[in-house]
Structures are given as C-alpha cells and as structure tokens.
Specification:
alpha+beta, two-stranded antiparallel sheet, HNH endonuclease
C-alpha cells in the first residue's frame, strides 16, 4: 500500500525512522493528527519540490512549521529567506539527508557542460543534454522520473 504521494508504506516507515527530528530545524515532532499543534506534525517533505512525488531518495520528514514556510520554494533559495536565517537553518545545520541532496545538486550542476539556448533570445537560458551525461548521472536523472 502507498501513501497519497505513491510512496510505498515500507519506504515511508524507513524515512520516518531515519528522520526522528525535523530535517531542517531539528525539533521533536508528533504524528500528524496526534496534536492540535499542526506546526509540530511530522510531515512529508519533497526535497526536489517537483514531481515525481514517490521517489524515496528525494523525500524527508520535517515539522509542519518548516514545511509550511518552504511550500514550493527551491531549497537553496528557501535557506536565504527570513524564516531560515532567523532559525539558523542552512546547509551546515540541516540533517544528513538534506546535506547529501544539496551536495548532489551542487556537484551535478558544477560538472555539467551547459549549452546556451539561442531559441528564445528574449529569455536567455542554459540546458543540459541528458545523453551527454555520464552514466552515473543518467541513472540519477532517470530515477527522478520513476
């Protein structure tokens, strides 16, 4: 059986066991609906903020306060927002799964041969061609679609 995001029950149990405290602010949490204080609920957090939602490698458990604050903000951008700066939430203070995720993203971005897209001159942007990725990165890239 899976939860509403499609995460298998065993994977969710393992993630909840791993993340006993909020992965961001490190406070103790309570099971959802065990308390009237939603800010303390142990909620599912999608580190990548984009689908697929059922990838256990991009899911963590955080408190309702942090989840509500972040919403769909990009992780590194959220660390610069007032909520995080006031609470000392940053890449050095978060839990290991978040640090690993951030490290992977930074490493991935720094290793790529970015190509400038000339198709929309009014909106300059760069992209990476999947087929030009090393095999290890292709596997991780493809895992995001699973």
């Amino acid at each position: 059986m899976s939860n509403k995001y499609g995460i298998p029950e065993k994977d969710e149990r393992d993630i909840r066991a791993r993340d006993g405290k909020c992965v961001y602010c490190r406070k103790e949490m309570v099971a959802p609906r065990d308390s009237a204080r939603r800010k303390d609920w142990a909620t599912i957090e999608h580190l990548n903020r984009l689908p697929p939602w059922d990838n256990p490698h991009t899911v963590a458990i955080c408190c309702g306060s942090c989840n509500s604050s972040r919403r769909d903000t990009e992780l590194l951008a959220w660390f610069k927002m007032r909520y995080c700066t006031a609470s000392n939430i940053n890449t050095k203070t978060v839990s290991a799964p978040v640090r690993e995720y951030v490290g992977y993203i930074e490493d991935f971005l720094n290793r790529q041969n970015w190509i400038f897209a000339k198709t929309m001159p009014e909106t300059p942007h760069y992209y990476v061609v999947r087929d030009s990725l090393p095999d290890d990165d292709k596997k991780r890239f493809d895992a995001l679609d699973e």
